[in-house]
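Why does this matter for the project? Reviewers at the last site visit asked to see concrete outputs rather than summary tables. In response, this paragraph embeds two records directly. Each consists of the residue sequence and, immediately after it, the corresponding structure tokens. Nothing has been edited or filtered.
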Amino acid sequence: MKKIMKRAFAAVIVAVMVLCAAPLSGIADFITTAQAAGGYKVGDTIYFGSYPQHEITSMAQKARIMEQQKNNKNIYEYKGIQYYYKNDSNKLYRIDPIEWKVLSVEDDEIYVLAYDVLDIQPYNESGNTVWANSSLRTWLNSYFYSSAFSDLEKKKINWSKIQNGDDPYTGEDGGIDTKDKIFIPSYADVTDPNMGFTSYYYENSSWNEDSAYKDGLRTCRFSNYATNIFSEKKNKDIYAERLYWLRNSGYCVMDFDGNRFYYGYISGCNVQSDIGVRPAMKLDLNSSSYKVKSNSNYSIKVVDDTTGQPVSGASISFEGETIKADSSGSASLRTSDSSSSTSAVRISAKGYATQTLRLYELNPYSMNTINLSSESNPVSMALADLYLNGDEIKGPTVSILGKTFPLFKFSGGINIPLSDIVKVNVSTENDTRNKTAKYILGVNSSYSVDTDSARSEDYQNFKDFYKSALGGSNQNALNKYNKLRRLLKDEDGSLGFSCGIKFAGYLEFSYATGNMVLKDGGIIVTAEAAVSTDVPFAGICYATFKIGGEFSGDLNLSQTSSGLLSASTKLSISVKPTIGVGAKLLMKDLASIEVGIDGKITGAVKIPADSFRNAFSAYLSAQCYIKAKALFLFENKWSTNFPNLELYPNFGQFQTSSAGSFEIDENGNVVTINESDLKLIDRSYNDNKQFHTSSVTGNDYLNDTSVYPYGYPELVQLDDGRVMALYLYDDGTKSDINRTTLYYSIYNNNQWSVPLPVNNSGLADFPVKVCSSGNKIYAVWQRAAEVMQDSYEIEDVVDKTELVYAEFNGTTWSKPVTIDTAGKYQMLYSIAEKDGKVAVEWSENSENNYTLESGTTTVYYKTLADGAWSDVTTVDSGKGIADASIGFVGDEIKMIYSVDADGDLTTANDSEIYVNGTKLTSNEVDEGEISYQNGKFYWIQGAELFEYDGGTLNNTGLKIENDYRVLTNGKTTAVTSLVTDGFKNELVVAFKNGNTYTKPVALTEYGKHIGYYDAILNSNGSVSVLADVDNLSGNKDAYPYTTTDMVCDIISGKKDLGIENVTVSDNVSVGSTVTFDGTVTNSGTTPIDSYSVFIKDSKNNVLTEKPVYDTILPGESKTFTVDYTLPESFTKQDVSAVVSADGDANASNNSQTITVGYTDIAVAEASIARDGTITATIVNNGIETAKNVSVKYNVIDGASKTLLSTFSVGTVAAGEIKTVTYSVPAAYLKIENSYCVNKFELDVTTDSEELSVANNTYDVVYAPIAVESISLNTSTLSLENGQTAQLVATVYPSNAFNKGVHFVSDSTDVATVDDNGNIITVGNGTAIITAITDDGDYIAQCQVTVSVKVKGVDLDQKDITINVDNTIALKANINPDVASDKTVEWTSSDTSVATVDKDGVVRGVKTGNTTITAKTNDGGFEASCTVNVINAVKGITVSDTRIALYPNKTKQLKASVTPADADNPNVVWESNDDEVATVSETGLVTAKMPGTATITVKSVDGEYTATCTVTVGKHVSSIVLSDTELTMPAGTSETLYATVMPLAAFNKTVTWVSTNPKVATVDGNGNVKAIKAGTTTVIAYCEDGDVTASCIVTVTNSATGIEMSESEVYIARNSQKQLNATVKPDTAENKNITWESKYPEIATVDSNGLVTAKMAGTTIVVATSADGEFKAYCSVKVVGVDAVSTASIDYATGIITGLSSNLNSLDNYIEVTDESCELKYDKLGTDSIVYLTRNGKVIDAYTVVLFGDVNGDGWYDGQDAITVSCLANGMLTREQVGEAVWMAADCNHDGKIDQADVDLLNQAGLLLSSVDQTKPTEELLETSSEYNEYLNLIDQSVEVKSDEPEQESPETQKPSLLEFLLMTIWNYIKLILSLIK
């Protein structure tokens, strides 16, 4: 399990290695010469990237640095070093190289981990999650990645496939694998020894510092920056100061703990805690890198990254010096001896972003082109947001109960967020040649294409869309938009109304003249309604804007057109007002305004404008109604028309229609509603109904007309498949104010039962809240506490209600129980159940204000468990509580409620969610019901459905309007909600698919207004709906609704496949294959597995069709494509795309039309010759003939263009190609420099409507002749030092415009070169001279070799002495030291004495003398050395290194020298302590006295030594034993210990023996084992000294333990069980045992172990031995059954009574006391046996008695009467029939069996004859009054005790057989007569 560490951490001193200055954008030194070849190993250190690390604490230094100019990233540069300033803490940090440790090397990739904790971050900002979804992953791969590395470094970082393993302890899923650039290590990584870590785990329970768990790699340093950041964090854990994250969610590594120093300990931590981050990544070893050369020239050219133009005057800073680039952008820097691969090269220029490289990234043998990004490049150019601060636009208002509400309102404004447009560079080879930069505007972040051609095609489409919307066909523009919309980024914005904004545009820049200028650009802003907007759009609105502006400044927009993308003409923006704020007042349902508006708001937008009032106007044309309602009893209604009311900018007066019942006053108020205006609900619709009846024939009782309009229906699904409906309904037998009655009906076997009241109390019922479990239903509702008077006002009602509770047990409803009495009005109540425990919550207002506008509101709850209600618990109290719900999360009760943040319940979307008194969310929760379903809570927040499971808050992403229900059938989850359209609304449903929901689809098609509803999801996927549906009047001048119907539907799945967004590809020409694509949507409620797409011509003929086999879920959309080859005869026409699916219920949305066959005139290609002749090909790629075609020739000059000529082409037929030419005047062909081109534009136009206009222009450039290659007059030169030479470069072609060349040397310490090719030699060696062209950077090279002659040689030694086999190295010094050839030859004059190798190493062979000579290869110079070889002693050994002697004893030692033939083998002997031992000259040692001495032998030659340790000891004198006497029980063991004296004795070996091994044995180590009772002597003997010691051992037969026969037993109540216990060993003398029960009230045990069970429960029986008090235990579990409901059990006799007839289960009557036991029985009637079993074994048995049922068939009837008659008349006796039958015969429980009992049974048989006994009991209870009377005829609840006296026998004589037969026949006759009657 994870360990959450709570330890105080001590501070550490962080040592930061500062290597060199580096910018925040990155440094690198990760590839050296050896490493580039793959020389890395685990544990190596590298430096790569840079990050703020070291804090500058010196105030003076900090002041000097901050005097410099900082950039927009708060970075200062001072003396070549960069610093980061953190504003919020006023701290300055040096940006240092990041140190990394290599964890693994694989092929050309290394895995590295930061050595330091670099920053502090939470694992995830909100809630538990896995790595794939963590905010830390996002931070690392965005902010950290972009901040720590340069662009070149980023190229070296590989994408890594990260395997996210499961939790190492719990096994919880670690989430999906990810693909990351930057990540953090996993638990598996930091415990992998192959990566340099120690394996885990620290387990030393007795800790000390020496044994502390340490891992040097798992521990790390914390940078100053990280340490300071931690102290600044608000969400820090005080125990987390020295932790850093692992990738496994919630795991971290402890750097150290100040108390116990657990270095590298792996712990657990809250994922939202702010703790350390050690980044990790994988680097590519194949990334470009070069060997760094000292004293070398490096050529650099600095160019603009977009235009390629040279950046003249750019600064190149290197090793403290700054070089300026020349006019061609070129410069040369020179390395020195101290230059390293990490040396930084920083390139900067005004107007450009500074770039930093490392020296290893530069090539010394070619031109290094550095691309600088302009700070005003097209990507960074800003499009300013179009933003006009708007106003809140309100509709007319209504005043109710002192509060004023608008009928609707919305936030108006202009917000087009252009600054956030995503730009994509369209870079192609052609663009570079034509010096054009093109950009796409508006694509989403996931936009990606594989090829330049695909990106260019997209650019053409964006440009086409703009051109088409600007002046082309509206239908054609829609086609273009549908093609692009999937690529576009969604933004929230507003065009007067809030809406979803998309952008589609393009920018085109030209840099032909060397300067970047904006040539063309445009953007279209489209607006569509999002589900969350409160004003749905009636189409796709758009506005087009021309983009202009200077390149160095911000771009600007000017509006060119606007309209609606649809098949119709361009329209003003039109929306439908949706009721939001005005729809509810204060407390939902309790006091509310229901508002309906049917019409539209028309708005006009004109931008740019200086204010919103000048940019937007809006008018309302609509019919409106208002209904005010309070407490489910009081209401009133109003309605009117608004003909054309100006809403904005000036709220205008208007003339109401004659039918309108109210007018707008000068403040815009429609009507003022006071409490006195609210009257009792008119019940005239129900005057003819006295009780619940159906207007529909048959038993479809729940479809009814003219019902109570506020039925608040509830549907409940039971486990047995039944469905119960509960709802409020009028009971016409009561007065108006008391009429509302809570009814229920059960759906079973495809029909609803007759509705019945839940409880016919005569009081008014109000809405019910229910929950269910199994076949039980739990309900809570509000009802009147008394019968109310129709004259009551609202204030009379609020203190006369109570909250009641009832249960449905599967058959009947229990009597309601009051859980809150009258006095305070109960609101916001709900109910939940878990495992039989029920919880009910409600709210009350301190002032009894049902609107909650005054006083405080308190939330309460109660629980019901084991039949008893708890006391009231107060959850919270305050102002603004708006809704609440109760539920269970696990076993814990959760109260979720919303609190209005400002306390004003009339404002919307400003509530906060609280959980048990703690705030969970901020104030953005919508007004709406909080609900609970299957362990989760739901509510609407930001128009989306949220769910909360007690730990995790999750946004489902499902857009919801209002009044939702969460449905589930155990397999599928669905959500229903209402969608409003004017006065109508319909139900929609969304199904859960994985972790998301499908798009909502229509569920109902009533075409009316659903007031209140409930729904359930059936097991077959259908949805059952019960709703109050208001009928429409159809009168526009009256209140829109008439009566209300109750509608019950089971809505099975339907299919509804629709098509939209159909487009056709642009390659529309005769004979071409075009592609139609579009979107199909399943708007039905069941999946569609396949469908077909048909393409039809204008005459509805099928051109082609395509079957598609793909499942589309409800609400899901998918795309399709269909290819079709256009025939030769095809002409421009409207083509339809039609979809068809089997069972499609709606054909109205199956087709969409698109026009195909426009003309498409284009410039296919164009070129310009050197003489200025432009040749162009014009082609018509379309279907229609292009008319009046002309070509304009323009010359482009910056942002402007000049018309040179216009040429009329005339008519171009479809597919026709025409070639045109034009000669450009010579004045426009002049070239200024090699970087500029002259650009000409061809623009073709036609009078015909075109498919595409983006291909109507074509640019050609007239460019200078470029360099193609270069050569040198020689490729090699050999020179002596001091010589000079010149290289001559030839540039090709000879007429190239720029033939400039410059030269560089890669070894300036060998040869230098100037730009004219003049070479000067300065040192010995080889230099590569490279010639580089200014144009094209072509190179040619020459290798220059410079040499120096040898002038002499000498040796470092002239005379040496050396031992045989030893070596000495001689060194030859060449003069001069810089000579080119320093090789020498070594020789020995006598190799038998000494040899010499090629490196001058001399080795002695034998004694003697010889001469060693060195001779130079260059010049033959010689030098010599005399060598004397000797044979000396090299070491010495002694024959013994350790000896032991008794006093006066001797030992001869021998010495040996090496080599054996050494010149002087003599040695000297010596003792360091002569009193202990002496040694002679020959090595004879003599022992003197006990002690230790060291004998040393030393060689005379070399004084080498060897030693021998001499120990002089004593004989053994005695033995001492640890025990001299032992008493042991048989079978046990003991150990004796012997101490030998004296301690200095030599031979301490002890032998052990037992004198009687049959009693006890002993082994060689003194271990004694007792065998049997008796006595023996154990003797210890030591041979040295011949001494002994003894111990007397006595063995006894004592007890050693006790064993129980059973460890666990189950027995029934009132039964017995014998337990047995055995004392061990069997030979024990005392085997007496005592017995005890820990809980004798459960079971007792006697002195012999006989257990007697008393009551259900568990006790422990203990057996204790008298000898030794050893104990054994047995768990005794007493089990049985308990009676519940009406059942009763006589435990003395085992008789069960109180059951109902016709039972097949005891589930609701008998409970087993232990869940491991179960009941077994075959039938349930009198004398049936019920067995209590466990694991198949019978524990107890019980007998059933059903009064009246004497024959045991489960019924009591006339058949039983015969047997009872026999008993009554003495024909049968109690002994004959048995006790159970005898009890059952006493039907009236008067203690005797007589004719009265017989008569009861005859009456029962009569009732039962009218009952269909084949029907289920539940159905009989609901449908048969005879069955209910039958059940109540004989009381089954009477308990019959076993001690009742036996009935006395009748005094009369037993009747004869004849008399008995006659009486029996008479009873049958009476039965038949009663049946006839």
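We now turn to the second protein, recorded in exactly the same manner.
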Amino acid sequence: MAEATGETPSETAHPEDIVLQEKVESPQASSTAPGTTNDVSNGEPANTSSSADGFICGVVEGFYGRPWTTEQRKDLFRKLKQWGMDSYIYAPKDDYKHRAYWRELYTVEEADHLTGLITAAHEQGINFYYALSPGLDITYSSSKEVATLKRKLDQVSQFGCKAFALLFDDIEPEMSKPDKEVFQSFAYAQVSVTNEIYNHLNCPRFLFCPTQYCSSRAVPTVKQSEYLNTLGSKLVKAIDVLWTGPKVISKLLTVECIEEITDVLKRPPVIWDNLHANDYDQKRVFLGPYSGRSPELIPLLRGVVTNPNCEFHANAIAIQTLAFWSKCSADTKISSSISSDIKLETENEQGICEGDAPAFLSENVYHPRLALKNAIANWLPEFFEEKEAWGPITKPQPAVTMVMPIIPIIPSVNTCMTLTSTSTTTTTTSTVLPMPEVNPTQLQMFAEVCSTVTNVAEALPNPIMNSLVSATKVVTNESLPNPVAAAVNNMAIPSTIPISSIPVPMLNMKTSDNDDELPACVDASSGDDMDKPSRDDKMMTVSEEPIPVGPLQQPPADQMVEEDDKTDVVFSSASPPAAPVIPEPMECGSNLTSPKHQLKTHFDDIIMSETTSVSIAVTCSGTMQVESSDTSLEMAEDKNGQDKDITAADLMLLCDLFYLPFEHGSKALQLLAEFFWLRNNAYVLSQRSNNPRKQRTASGTSMSSLVGGAGTHAGPSNAPSTDDISEGPSEGGPVVLEGRDLSKCDAQEWFRRSASFQSLCQNIFQLTKKIARCANKEMCYDLFSYVWDIAGVLSLLSAFVKWLAMGNFPANINSNTQGGYTWFSKGWKETFMSGDQEPWVFRGGLVADLQRLIPLDAGNDLFLYKTPETSAVNVYTMRPYTFSDEAALYEICHRTAQDGDALQDRPTEAQLEQLIADRYLGPFLTMAPEFCMVIEDHNEQLVGYACAALDTKTFIRNMEQCWIPEMCLKYPLSLLPAAETESVATDPRESGTSGGEGRAAQMVRDSIYYFHNFQNDYPAAVLSKHPSLLCCRILKDYLLEDETISKRVVTVLLAALRCYGTTGGIHVCINRNDRFLFQFYAKLGFVEIPHTETDTSMYLGRNF
């Protein structure tokens, strides 16, 4: 990192006794910073007491990943002026010539863009700080290197820049060999260069970022750090020092910690605040208010600059609430991170905890939730600004090597409970089982691993992005210097290496009357293009009536279903333009590409949103760009005309879902608490399985359904009413207290809270739809992937709750679903909220916390989805199977029988038309209907299913006794031609077939043979470790469009199996020559199970 770059030790060095001399005081600069208790300015011009040069407050673009565009920065300058802030620091870590190639001068084109930025900032009264990060490879003792640094900053000075910064953060604290011969320490080397540059520029505004920039990185402590003490005594006093607080991302900043660093640095610090930074986690964006810092700190600080989210349009809350904070002098003395339980119980409909703040606050008193509410009111109009965007949606954060959506489940030494109970006895279900405790040592190790992944900068970031060659997108240079060319002289090597362009977003704002003002909200009745109906749209639907939660009101389910018929989102594959458009991903390691009007029909990952109509199409970090007039995103006007536009309540919900690094918002806590309660109290429904009228087993199914298969039978609804629970007593009889049936009361409470949970899920899906169709497509791009992630995991939880509502599970369900580390594990929530760990320890945020509640131990791979490249996606609903679905599922089985396609020459005779499905699907629907999940599209048409058998050995035995005899009667040998009937004792697959026989005829012969020669000879190697059996089929068109349909439905089904206490794996049985199914199940994590028996079948298994 900090190695010599080819300079020889013989070059002229800079003796310390010369370079450490401070600049002579200016006679006009002798006042101290306002409010400081110690005279740390020493008359330096940077610490004058005038309002213009007093408290620094603004934004530092200092994150890793895709930089902002020129136009976005200019927009920021206008907003900073409007909000009363005064500073912007240009320091994007991965911008081409800021860090990795800091030595290179700007080209004419780049100079024009940078000059325009500086001019635009000054026009708005914003101090533009140009920062350079030479620490990766600079040789501090080399006069050539220092001259190069001066030349680069002189060039920027000629562009009109009057403020500068040198950043030495995130580098190796080791000097090169030439430097060790000149400087006695790393600090002396940095101070030497910084002081010389400061004196050379003769600039009153100058910032310095140390390598030890927070208390946790001070060696050994802040007070005892030789590095920090050297800075305090040797660095020119007029140079302001950046500091992040106790941690890289600090939850709290206290008076004590500020006074401590002030004493060491001999000057008040400028806080580089990473509270809203999200470049370390692609699953989190932070929309909560600025908090954890009392305004009483302001007199003790030189300033505060926020390093916010990578997504430009996601930062309105972070920046505005900082602006509100900077104008206050006191707070309400209430910590924003109060107990999550108290917050959940006391927060009122305005999103403020009761008793947390008085009805009226003085203007100089800061309250985070009130600041959030005001910032949302100012943010809302931006959603109605008509802005266009093109390209694929990609994450702006740098690619992370280690992907851990779920923290591994490790048994705790503090509990005697195993992860998954293997006992088959019924436990006392009313007793809450102990949760595993969080081991702080494990968290610390996890933190160290994450730190090495996310915080150590590479010497040559790849790709190197350039935000100064286009006003509306970020690209890479056409070529980079070839490092080999300088070291090799005896052969011709190109001096540069060409690099493919990584075009990012092309973001354009439609003409506006006044660029300096934010346009007002678009009238709801203005008839914009986005409100026009799209006849080809597809979206998920709702099957039960929701119960409104809080202030977010929902229309009745019947209205929503009708609405969805008109307001769905379609994945459009419109005709391509005349000239081909090259996809332009917007991030490092982009995984998706799709330009406007060339939207693919095949995703690697899309969400299958659940329970309510939603056009899951919100944005992620801004790249996929779709014009506001693109028909694939057009929505029909809602039936009642009330919910088509996003509201302040919607944005409050959005902010609660993505709150702060150490804190979930109230609605996020409600999601966690409600699902956890429903999962842990589902045992009150298990008694219904003892009611003969409620059991869904073969004994309750008419023989006509066993034989005919496609009858229309009335089955239980997928959301039982609370009246059903009283139809029969439990095994020990009902528990009665004071004349009340407690089992009935408990079940009614369960269904009430289930409806509340489903309603909250529906509100989130509605929010997703609104963001998808908002006029501001740049905003849509920046928010889509995050809301998509939340909606995706909620689709799983909602489907699982629907399955629990059926009551088809054992009474000891709790002993089968406990054991993993979750939000509710002892110490987990407290550790998360304490701020003692850096937030990347809990990578994944709310999405990961929700995923951990799904009772799977080894299903992490099922949660790995790629971000959809467009917000115009199909959304599907998962629910438990009902008997009325039988005919549709039989049809799906036939339509996927031949390599995922419909079987050609399918038999049409009445006696044979159900043969194939009776072999592959019928046994599951008849003998294990409780383990069957179906997938519906927006029209409530079934498009796929997943079925399972808990114990294959028992399942096969039941087939042999109940199913096979009925099939032999239904499909007698007389259905085969006479010549084949005589030889049916021989497997027709072995005897061969005529060359002219089709695939359908072969499958008919095989199936009839299978029924009449059924053999219960399952390989022991399969059943020993993978006792459960799975079958999954999805119509090929839908599968090609969204491969994650299968992942999501299988995840719910595996969770249902876990509720029965299965501790082994699951397997599938396919034909050894069926490459389509092999690849289909391989994508679901199934691998071949080796066994000794020779068979034409192949067995694939996986654990969960």
